[in-house]
Amino acid sequence: MKCVDDFRLRFGKREVVPIIIGGMGVDISSRQLALEVSRLGGIGHISDAMLPTVTDRLDKTKFVSVKQKQYKLNIKETDKSIVQFDLGQIAESTRLHVSKTMEAKRGDGMIFVNCMEKLTMNAPRETLRVRLCGALDAGIDGITLSAGLHLGSFALMEDNPRFRDAKLGIIVSSLRALQLFMRKTSRLNRLPDYIVVEGPLAGGHLGFGLDWAKYDLHTIVAEIVAHLKTEQLDIPVIAAGGIFTGSDAVDFLENGCAAVQVATRFTVAQECGIPPKIQQEYFKATEDDMEVNMISPTGYPMRMIKNCPAIGAGIQPNCEAFGYLLDAKGHCDYIDAYNRELALHPDAKKISVKDKTCLCTHMRNYDCWTCGHYTYRLKDTTHRNPDGTYQSLSTEHIFKDYQFSVDNKIALPPK
Ligand SMILES: Cc1cc2nc3c(=O)[nH]c(=O)nc-3n(C[C@H](O)[C@H](O)[C@H](O)COP(=O)(O)O)c2cc1C
After folding, report:
1. Is the model's pLDDT at 149 over the cut of 80?
2. Which of 12, 52, 56, 102 is the most buried (most CB within 10 A)?
3. Does residue 49 line the site of ligand 1, with CB under 6 A?
4. 3-class secondary structure, 193
5. Phi, psi torsion values for 190, nearest 5 degrees
6. What is the distance of C-alpha 329 from the center of its chain?
7. 305 Cβ inside 6 Å of ligand 1
8. Whose CA is nearest to atom 19 of ligand 1?
9. Ligand 1: does its nearest atom lie under 6 Å from the Cβ of 182?
10. Where are the beta strands (DSSP E) in 306-347?
């Protein structure tokens, strides 16, 4: 019976354990998590979501307070178009986060950055270019382009000296999305180095509608693998979403995938960015607590634990400090929803906004508990302590369980 360790992901002459830990924003896939995975010989991700606030917290920079001070007179305004990011500051925070991670890197694995393209930051092309090139300049091994895949992203990096040497990958949820991307980038003579195929059971934003349950990862992977074969394109395909055991992974590795991308099991790792108290909520969650809703202002469905504070909260939009979801015209759907509720309840001390959430603030504060579908199985991966809490797990334990387990078994950690 095979285990994941019988396979290797190859990039030219380089070989790694075919386990990739997916990017999880905002700083859920932390430096420590990525560094551990790289030490263990796999591929770890950091996330480039909201890096100015992340480096403020980790490295004592002051990006958020500077921006907030600059735009403080706009806080009560509904029009946020003047709230622009300083491109120099984005570049600096990206360089800081990436270089600090890469300098600490040990082992034979790799570290990629997940770049969520739906973070339009009131100037989509300019800010994305700075984020992508900043990560390349700071020595990242690879970039995974995700949510809201911008068909022109490769072109934004075209002039960077590392454009052809860094690994560049994309996340798609359908063959159609892949074909669109390939058509658009064909003039650059630069194919993606890997393609992550993310199915409907993943965490974070989904590349499906609310009818996500009708889709199946195996089917989408098979279509994409067959298409690449027909086109004689030798690009590693990486399956993601709902791969919970080593045996689930082997199933994909035996059927045309070069690696798997996993995340949910690592949300309860000691090195993951989610605070321990909230990790207990992930452990406790039942299948009934999983929901896919439309409250993200990005317009994409997102999976969350039902009782998280972000759902139904009515906080004042915080775009002067954050504003990562402002589109090219300085608009975010949460601002409209918030102002509508405020007008309907002018005398209320506290309002509730049910249809949208202030995703920047809630993600930054770990109040939006986004999760993969199988979060409700996390309790089966550890021991219950006498006080009713669940024992935390090391990244090494979870990684090795994926790497070596057979027969759908999950190894429990030492007590
Ligand atoms: C808590 C959490 C946050 C996530 N955030 C992101 C993100 O910011 N960007 C992204 O591309 N994918 C994100 N994902 C998706 C993962 O990177 C990964 O592809 C997917 O969840 C794998 O499926 P699994 O969680 O069932 O193992 C997130 C997943 C989780 C669980």
Report:
1. no
2. 52
3. yes
4. coil
5. -145, 100
6. 25
7. no
8. 22
9. no
10. none
